Amino acid sequence: MDANGIDAAPGFRAALAVADSVLYEGYLLYPYRRSSPKNQVRWQFGVLLPERWARAHGLEGGGVAGSAESWWQQTECLLVAPSDAVVSGRLRFLQLRRRTPEERLPDGGHRAADRVGEALSFDEGVPCELDVQASVAELLSGEKRLDLRVPGSDTVTPLPGSAGRTRRRTWPLTARVTLSLTPCEDESLFRLRVRTENAAREPSPDTPRDEALRHALIACHTLLTVPGGRFVSLLDPPDWAEKAAAECVNAHTYPVLSGDQVVLSSPILLYDNPRVAPESHGDLHDAAEIDEILSLRTLTLTDAEKREARATDPRAADIIDRVEAMTAEDLARLHGTIRDQDTEAGTDVVEVAGTLVRKGSRVRLRPRLRGTDPQDMFLDGRTAVVEAVLLDVDGARHLAVTLEDDPAAELNQWYGRYRYFAPEETEPLEGEPA
């Protein structure tokens, strides 16, 4: 456990697993080769560039979306805590590390090259963590500003067979974090603000983006804890906190809960209490990734493509090795799963227009005309059989149905391929009175 105890907070481990996925989101995309066009332009989320460079390039916006680059990001969230409670924060990001192979010359010197044997030049990412903390009482007396620094480095390692060496270089990073706390109308509620800025003086405004990224905080996000207190959801605030939640201003990042003592403020929009699916065998660096498809497609790479992927980055090599080691059972688990529902709590049944609807019930479909799949309008008025009542992560119920006049209904039942509708998009035809 570290000095401020942030790792010990309930919900922190689950939040950290998701934060690791955020950290490497888009780091390297299928087919995981340097030569792939999609891996020519990288670092898409949570990029904080030096202020002078960002301003010169018009990066001044303050929207929530973390895909818009800037020189700052701001988290505002709500908490209830006594004056002696300590707010702990962990700023996490990637530091760009330039990897350059250098070929050995006849005179014993070295010269930078794009490739030496299987060694390729590439920009790697080094994970960085910086911790901050302050008590509620301290923040109520005034904001707390901290200047944080990550040093640069320059190392070389020999390549096999005396062909040359690999140089890895990073550039110093400077971040400024400002913490502040403001009482809300409800005196037990506070608005916590965490503003993070890239305080680097380099590079000059005319520097290309690829070089400016050497001084950037990449995939920047923040973890917050408040032992002895609790955070309040901004996505689903209680009635008494709705007004305060609406007044929170978040820029280039958005906070969600992990339990009630941990917040993950991410440049990628998430829901409260996000989790990594237990079926996943590891990060594939693609948000909302379809592990099955990506794994199967990775297996189709040629031996030459796999060699290039392994030479591109150690994380790409890990993906190739991990996918090749998967068994048929591992792949089957990626095909999909249904979480068991608590039938005693009634999650296998839902009331629709005064009628209890469950598996086997007949309904007439009345899909919404907006906010749904446009193809659903062609199903208006058709009858269907309910195959399951499902509960999503937000607690909303959905009916999985098969059309009664669909010639492939029996086949779809066997495969488990259904159409999904909200209960209010159906009219019960049979069922038990509620």
How would you characterize this protein structure?
This protein is α+β, with helices and mostly antiparallel strands and 434 residues long. The strands form five sheets. Strands 2, 3, 6, 8, 9, 12, 14 and 15 form an eight-stranded antiparallel β-sheet that branches. A hairpin with a 5-residue loop joins strand 19 and strand 20. It is flat. The relative contact order is 0.15.
List keywords for this structure.
alpha+beta; SH3 type barrels; eight-stranded antiparallel beta sheet; five-stranded antiparallel beta sheet; flat
Number of DSSP E strands: 23
Distance, first to last CA: 53 Å
The mean pLDDT is 89
Fraction in beta strands = 25-35%
Structural class: alpha+beta
Q: How much helical structure, as a percent, in the residues?
A: 10-25%
Low-confidence stretches: 340-346
Number of helices: 10
How many domain modules?
2
What is the radius of gyration computed over CA atoms, rounded to a whole number of angstroms?
26 Å
The major beta sheet can be summarized as: 8 strands, antiparallel
Shape: flat
At a glance:
With 434 residues, the chain is an alpha+beta fold.
Question: What's the layout of helices and strands?
Answer:
Elements: H1 12-23, H2 51-56, E1 72-80, E2 86-104, E3 110-112, E4 115-116, E5 119-120, E6 122-135, H3 136-140, E7 144-150, E8 153-158, E9 164-170, E10 173-183, E11 190-198, H4 209-212, E12 218-225, E13 230-232, H5 242-246, E14 254-257, E15 262-266, H6 291-299, H7 303-312, H8 314-324, H9 328-334, E16 349-352, E17 355-358, E18 362-365, E19 383-391, E20 397-403, H10 409-415, E21 419-421, E22 426-428, E23 432-433
Antiparallel strand pairs: 1-11, 1-13, 2-3, 2-6, 2-9, 2-12, 4-5, 7-10, 8-9, 10-11, 12-15, 14-15, 16-17, 17-23, 18-19, 18-22, 19-20, 20-21
Helix pairs in contact: 7-8
